[in-house]
Amino acid sequence: MDIEVSIEKTAKPKTRPPEEKLSFGRYFSDHMFVSDYTTARGWTSARIVPYQAMSIDPGASVLHYGQALFEGMKAFRGVDGKIRLFRPEMNWKRLQEGAARLCMKAPDLDLFMAGLQEFVRTEKEWIPESVGTALYLRPTLIGTEAFLGVRPSEAYCFYIIASPVGNYYGEGAETVKIWVERGFARCAPGGIGAVKAGGNYAASLLAATEAKKRGYAQVLWLDAATKTFVEEVGTMNVFFKIGDRVITPPLSGTILPGVMRDSAIQLLESMQVKTEIRPISLDEVFEAHKKGELKEVFGTGTAASISPVGSFGMESGIITINDGRVGELSKKLFETILDIQYGRRPDNMGWTMEVANTK
Question: The whole model's pTM is what?
Answer without folding.
Answer: 0.94
